[in-house]
Specification:
five-stranded antiparallel beta sheet
Length: about 550
């Protein structure tokens, strides 16, 4: 049976009812196109769903009932649309047409998403072998055939005027050019020596423009610099990894450079080949800096938060999102207060590596740069500055992947531990603003302007639904993050799992069905806005009060 059995009577415990008006007729019936359901299964699923909706008809006379508000017009529309889906799927000809539409839609959607990855992969007009392999992997993950992937890549290379670039091949070519120059110099020297030896006494050697003849094996620093620059262009952060530096240093001999001279070029420092390297002091400082950051990849805090924040300053990304740095830390996660829910216990120790976090949730304006068609899902009350909602956990993750390719950084969803520490800080705050109860100026929650049975009858925060980001600056977290209490729930990377009392480092549980959401929303009661309150939803779920904010992995400073 494709539908859960028995169907949960409470629509809050079964998200499948929301697919009653899906363009995919299989979804309407709780079925899967890929499984090619039989006519008997189609009939049975339709029967169960119609019975489920029939039981909801009494809610039409209870407009203040939360379930009636949740289901809305679906109470009237769902039976008709579900029956329509059954009729079409039971007709072989109509079903064949619908199946072709699903296949074409899936292919178009995958190709559209793949196109975005290609455009940003070719932003520098170059495609390396590693980059091309990555594109093939992305295309295959989207279900595209290799032939179509190759055709799409070729078309974009032509349209964007981009070229394939192989750093390894470029290095070999540069070395060959250097060797050719060396051989030419040897021939030149031999010619000059022969000319001088055969000249009559008192005759002058052939005029060489006043310049001395180049000796065999003359250093070629310019050729080596070109090679180094080519390798920097292909690196993730525009800087060379230690492995790259080692490989370049091995090739330095082909350019007739001494090790100190080659090292200075690799490190982009000045060098006087006739004397001591002018880079000595700078190199010493670099070594000190690298030693101080030797534990950068380790979550154990070996220097003060102030020092760490100085090394990783805040920045604004290409979408205008302010990224705040949260230093490495060790803190108590969870809550042992009497008001804590069972899933907030036990309290345990967590150690985190420093990370960047967006000051605010992702807005509609920002999300729609990734997925322009999402504008059709905007609630009527929301403008560009409202937090984006109506996206699943999976779509939020794809946004992070897209932005990572676009900016050549490592964006992701926050882990639950990263989210909680950013919200409560080292002070272990009950709410982001402190330990005091909610007030109208602190956050957007289910206030007097809403009509839920849990709505606060006294406080009015000024918004009946979501609010523009940053509307409650007094409610910011210790690190200056806005909207971490209320407005919209925020997807996190990990699954909803029970806490364990043992200390953990960078925890991110992955075994489970539901993904974490944190922070509460405009539909939530005040206690759901606490920094330790937890909830979960299926990764395909979406709602008008669930959004997300992003994290960025800090770069390794060399």
């Amino acid at each position: 049976m494709a539908l859960p059995y028995p169907l949960a009577d409470d629509p809050r415990k079964w998200d499948g009812w929301k697919l009653y008006n899906s363009n995919n007729l299989y979804d309407r019936l709780g079925l899967s196109y890929e499984e090619a359901p039989s006519a008997q299964l189609i009939e049975e699923c339709c029967r169960q769903l119609l019975m489920w909706w029939q039981k909801k008809l009494p809610l039409k006379s209870q407009p203040n009932n939360p379930l009636a508000q949740l289901l809305g017009r679906a109470i009237d529309e769902a039976p008709r649309l579900i029956t329509q889906a059954k009729v079409i799927l039971l007709d072989p000809d109509q079903r064949a047409v619908h199946d072709r539409q699903i296949q074409q839609s899936a292919n178009d959607s995958s190709l559209e998403e793949f196109q975005k990855f290609i455009i940003f992969a070719l932003s520098d007009k170059k495609l390396t072998p590693a980059g091309e392999n990555g594109l093939y992997g992305m295309g295959q993950n989207l279900g595209l055939a290799d032939e179509l992937i190759g055709q799409t890549i070729e078309a974009n290379l032509l349209e964007l005027g981009a070229v394939r670039f192989d750093p390894e091949a470029a290095a070999v070519e540069a070395i060959a050019e250097a060797n050719a120059r060396t051989e030419a110099l040897k021939v030149q020297q031999a010619t000059l020596v022969a000319g001088t030896a055969s000249a009559p006494a008192g005759a002058k050697a052939k005029d060489n423009g006043g310049q001395p003849a180049a000796p065999a094996g003359q250093p070629d620093p310019d050729g080596f610099k070109d090679l180094v620059e080519q390798w920097k262009e292909r690196s993730e952060w525009g800087e060379l990894e230690d492995e790259d530096k080692d490989k370049l240093m091995k090739w330095a001999g082909n350019f007739n450079l001494t090790a100190p001279w080659a090292q200075a070029i690799v490190d982009d420092e000045e060098y006087d080949p006739d004397g001591e390297s002018k880079a000595k002091t700078a190199e010493e400082e670099r070594i000190k800096k690298k030693a101080a950051l030797a534990s950068a990849a380790s979550p154990v805090q070996s220097y003060s938060p102030e020092q760490e924040k100085a090394l990783y300053p805040p920045y604004v990304n290409e979408l205008g999102m302010q990224m705040i740095y949260i230093p490495s830390c060790t803190f108590k996660m969870g809550c042992k207060s009497p008001e804590a829910a069972h899933n907030e216990e036990p309290e345990f120790q967590v150690t985190l590596t420093g990370y960047y976090i967006s000051k605010s949730p992702v807005t509609f304006a920002q999300f729609e740069q990734f997925l322009p068609t999402h504008k059709s899902k905007r609630p009527a009350w929301a403008d560009d500055s409202h937090p984006a909602v109506m996206m699943s956990w999976e779509q939020a993750g794809k946004f992070c992947d897209w932005l990572s390719v676009r900016e050549n950084k490592k964006y992701k969803l926050l882990t639950e531990a990263e989210w909680e520490y950013a919200a409560k800080g080292p002070q272990n705050r009950r709410y982001p603003w402190g330990d005091s109860d909610i007030a109208a100026a602190l956050g957007n929650f289910a206030d007097a302007s809403t009509n839920f049975h849990w709505s606060d009858p006294v406080i009015n925060d000024g918004f009946a639904q979501s609010s523009p980001i940053g509307s409650f600056p007094l409610g910011s977290s210790p690190f200056g993050c806005d909207d971490m209490a209320g407005n919209v729930w925020e997807w996190c990377k990990d699954v909803l799992a029970d806490y364990k009392i043992s200390p953990q480092t960078n925890p991110s549980p992955s075994t489970g069905s539901q993904k974490i959401i944190r922070g509460g929303s405009w539909r939530s009661k005040a206690t759901s806005l606490r920094t330790t309150a937890r909830a979960g939803q299926m990764p395909t779920y979406f709602a008008n009060d669930i959004g997300f904010r992003i994290a960025c992995t800090r770069p390794v400073i060399k």
